[in-house]
Prior knowledge:
The protein is an alpha+beta fold. Helices cover 29% and strands 29% of the residues. The protein has helices at 2-25, 105-110, 123-139, and strands at residues 27-34, 48-52, 58-60, 64-71, 74-81, 87-93, 100-104, 116-118. The chain has a four-stranded mixed β-sheet. It has a four-stranded antiparallel β-sheet with strand order 3-2-5-6, with no helix packed on it. The longest helix has 24 residues, at 2-25. The radius of gyration is 27 Å and the shape is elongated. The chain starts with a helix and ends in a 23-residue tail after the last helix.
Amino acid sequence: MKKTLIRSALVFVYVLLLVLMLVTGKRHTILIDNKDAADGSYEAINGMSVQIDNLESAEYYPGDRDKALVKGQRHRIKIELFDDEKVIEREFRVPFGQDMVLLSVPKLVAGIEPFIEPFTVKLEQASQDSGAMQDQEHQQFGTDAEGIPLESGSPSESPSQE
């Protein structure tokens, strides 16, 4: 009976430690976004400095987007607006199970919830787009390997010397 109780306690401690490591040690990518809303409900900020946790701060201007790699679920953001010389500090949580989120700073400053949304990469669309780009690159005409303009046909065709 005593052995079973000790083993159960050890299993409980291991599971607790596993959950703690999963929550505090998992890396997340936060995309910091400074873009206008498509519907015009908010506008990009004219200039600001953003710092997440103890990472180095970065400057953002309208249309900018950058990423920050962080550990854990709970984070602190500090925004310094250049125009108003106003400082905004706020805490937020990355939803459990999300590896990458989009943080819209203009929404946060305007007080619009949610300012954090899940971000997923559409791999199928991206692979189709890159395949189309490769096809276009292979169809371009212009110069051969030596930089000589191509007139017609293949690059191996050259005027015969008489």
